[in-house]
Amino acid sequence: MTDDKDVLRDVWFGRIPTCFTLYQDEITEREAEPYYLLLPRVSYLTLVTDKVKKHFQKVMRQEDISEIWFEYEGTPLKWHYPIGLLFDLLASSSALPWNITVHFKSFPEKDLLHCPSKDAVEAHFMSCVKEADALKHKSQVINEMQKKDHKQLWMGLQNVVSTWSSQEIETTQRVKQDRFDQFWAINRKLMEYPAEENGFRYIPFRIYQTTTERPFIQKLFRPVAADGQLHTLGDLLREVCPSALAPEDGEKKNQVMIHGIEPMLETPLQWLSEHLSYPDNFLHISIIPQPTD
Amino acid sequence: MDSSDGYMCKMHFQIKNETVVSRAGTSAHEQTCLPMEEALELPLDDFEVTESTATNEVIKYEYHVLYSCSYQVPVLYFRASFLDGRPLALKDIWEGVHECYKTRLLQGPWDTISQQEHPILGQPFFVLHPCKTNEFMTPVLKNSRKINRNVNYITSWLSLVGPVVGLHLPLSYAGAASQDE
């Protein structure tokens, strides 16, 4: 019987096999080979692609290189979205590996935020963690923590690196466990709630669909109903995104995906929030068309 | 309480020239800080673009007020671009802001300005962080109760944060701010 703690570990160690190819119009001094990497689902593109950048910059002249950005099938990839979310939303119905195109010029100012340094990723990550706690605990838990605790959350995430192979993961297993423990030593406090309540004040979540103009849906939603019943994933969707669900007697049109899986709609939202949130403490939920086989 | 599905939007166009726009008689060299009343009387929103002006000299400013349901405060999103679509970097926008407001920004009580994704449009905007909004708005609300005057929260908030990022409100807003609802 799977322990709840195993779920936390499975989420943390999730990986996506990815193939990076240089955009054909980039100017190179010799041919650029594609670069393969296992990307961590829970991290961010600009945090884990230093090896990719170095690999392609080796065949380019300094003057042809400006800010790196990534694209999948013509869509610029938002580095500030977790990698697992980007994959589930845009590429989960396609065959692996995930084929990402790398660009070094013509940064799409209208679509992407700039990422001048790792500090920008840290600032974004911490601001998500703070917003999640504003929803869960009126910011009380995050504000009571010391700066070094905030740093520890970030260090745990920052040290989740891309690898080349599963073998590499195994040989560094002990070190990786440390990062997981380092992160959760602090994060567990953000997952607590008063004994008299049955859950958080509101659940931090965002629902993404590629079919709408709006980037995501985010609303106030309580994990517990007035009568004390725990709200489920289905309850959440019925309330804030009813089009995601199949009509009573109709065919299932969409998949509701978190971390590459479809949780049962009867799952309590509070449990999902405690176990399937990303390190930023948000549930990032993708609504994608049911693949036709 | 749901987050608003819309936002308040204000656009204005300004001709960028190399000499600082003169404001109510003060010159660029004086660097005097205008009292709020005078600032509100300044000529604004130059919607008319003279034909002799090169289009790449005209800057379009957009200001959006959204409501953050997470923090339960209003948030100011803004961006600026040339008419051909090229965006301005934060430092270019900053150059158009009057000195005294720059000082105010540097003194707080807000954390920072950063680039973020607009939650409805999905495009990059600059955002003035809302974390300390309650801190600076509480005295405004307390004071209005003392003098028995209804204060429009959004208008008061805008008059405090707006000028810091180049957004100036006309006096007519001040009139609306103290009307009964």
From TrEMBL, chain A:
Residues 202-287 form the Autophagy protein ATG5 UblB domain. Belongs to the ATG5 family. This is Autophagy protein 5. Forms a conjugate with ATG12. Part of the minor complex composed of 4 sets of ATG12-ATG5 and ATG16L1 (400 kDa); this complex interacts with ATG3 leading to disruption of ATG7 interaction and promotion of ATG8-like proteins lipidation. Forms an 800-kDa complex composed of ATG12-ATG5 and ATG16L2. The ATG12-ATG5 conjugate interacts with RAB33A; this interaction is bridged by ATG16L1 and promotes ATG12-ATG5-ATG16L1 complex recruitment to phagophores. Interacts with TECPR1; the interaction is direct and does not take place when ATG16L1 is associated with the ATG5-ATG12 conjugate. Conjugated with ATG12. Involved in autophagic vesicle formation. May play an important role in the apoptotic process, possibly within the modified cytoskeleton. Its expression is a relatively late event in the apoptotic process, occurring downstream of caspase activity. Plays a crucial role in IFN-gamma-induced autophagic cell death by interacting with FADD. It comes from Equus przewalskii. Residues 119-159 form the Autophagy protein ATG5 alpha-helical bundle region domain. The keyword Ubl conjugation applies.
UniProtKB/TrEMBL annotation, chain B:
Keywords: Autophagy, Transferase, Ubl conjugation pathway. Pfam families: Autophagy_act_C. InterPro entries: Atg3/Atg10. The keyword Transferase applies. Coiled coil: none annotated. The keyword Acyltransferase does not apply. Belongs to the ATG10 family. This is Ubiquitin-like-conjugating enzyme ATG10. It comes from Equus przewalskii (Przewalski's horse). The gene is ATG10.
